[in-house]
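Q: Hi! Curious about what Arylesterase looks like structurally. Here's the sequence.
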Amino acid sequence: MTLFFLASATVWSASDKILVLGDSLSAGYGIKVQESWPKLLDSKLETEDQNYKVHNASISGQTTSEGLRQIDELLSLTSPKLVILELGANDGLRGLSISAMKSNLNSMIDKSQLAGAKVLLLGIQVPTNYGPRYGQMFKQAFADVAEQQGVAFIPFMLKPLMNNKDKYVQDDGLHPNAIAQPVILDYLWPEIEALL
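A: Let's find out. The predicted structure is below.
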């Protein structure tokens, strides 16, 4: 028994880590955790004999300020080669300061890069009822951060779901369902693969 756990720990420590720091869009809200796109990514990497393990630190409801408070400990714990940063949706839904969100994202990217990790920033958009002006400012914030930092960037991680929301989105109109998770991963994969 002891040998088994030692062996398991060795396998984990020998693998390079991918840290996913996100909110409900990556935490598997409303679906089984094993159906979430980060878990599917972990399975894909294992199937393809890639020497990576995914540490999903996503928490439903999390904002960029909460992510910033956690990131030092997470970087120390996982020593990731890649950080996938998927935060900001809850800042937008709560109408929090866009400039503060940008500052938080910049700080998390700085900390990740200082720890030796590459970064993939995933953008998100607020629902249309927030108005076109706020929606554009919110969307542009992610692009500004990505350009300023020179990091890999996907402007709207849910883009492939938008043409068929009835199929891919839960009844709350916000969260992707289980069927959507492989679609999200397929959309993100080319950028992820390029960073491995």
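A: A fun detail: The CA atoms of residues 140 and 155 lie 9 Å apart.
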